[in-house]
């Protein structure tokens, strides 16, 4: 049987871009502009195996003492726990809750930072707004911060064209910023991340990942045709993302 693990399929997808390099460079910019020294507790949603969240914590959160991850995919949870046990966050108490944003029951104590990396586009608007209200009123400390990384869908790119063609749900950063503003948050930093992504000549795993994003509404042949049509065009190997930091 073919491997349909979300964790493994996402790994196939991530091999096709330089997001990790661009993200690491952005963290250096953030380090010079925003002070995170007061952050001692962190809550992260939709972490997958947590490489990006752990990298941010190591680079930007020198006084971190507790890190809680919320992740619904069982294989991703296993990989995340292995990363935690690998000593990547020395001196930090770590925990993982295997659940979704929609089913998350909250935390007992306020947290100083919340990470939402490439996850909000998979959450319905009503559930996003409910989460932002909970963070504002119940779970985020008085000077807490929320770090968001998500796609910019208003800029025409290969990713946007593929999502449109395959009717994959998408949420633009501007919409998320408006929702967070409505909940009472304000932006203190934001930066565009231009990522190079090439999905041409897709592997079976990559095709299955895109099928998963479409909720299997399209066949493997249809997905391959869509990828070939879009990524064979000139200047179609870029994806725009936004990294933003919000506070109360």
Give a nutshell description of this structure.
With 248 residues, the protein is α/β, with parallel strands linked by helices. It is built from nine helices and seven strands, in the order H-H-E-H-E-H-E-E-H-E-H-H-E-H-H-E.
CATH superfamily caption? Vaccinia Virus protein VP39
Number of β-strand runs:
7
Count of helical regions:
9
What is the terminal separation in angstroms? 49 Å
CATH topology: Rossmann fold
Radius of gyration: 18 Å
Notes on the structure:
The chain has 248 residues and is an alpha/beta fold. It has a single domain, classed as Vaccinia Virus protein VP39 (Rossmann fold, 3-Layer(aba) Sandwich), CATH 3.40.50. 40% of the residues lie in helices and 22% in strands. The chain contains 9 helices and 7 strands; from the N terminus they run H-H-E-H-E-H-E-E-H-E-H-H-E-H-H-E. A 7-stranded mixed beta sheet has the order 3-2-1-4-5-7-6, with helices on both faces. Strand 4, helix 5 and strand 5 (140-151) form a beta-alpha-beta unit. Helix 1 (6-14) packs across helix 8, helix 2 (19-31) packs parallel to helix 3 (51-60) and helix 6 runs antiparallel to helix 9. The relative contact order is 0.17. The model has no long low-confidence stretch (mean pLDDT 95).
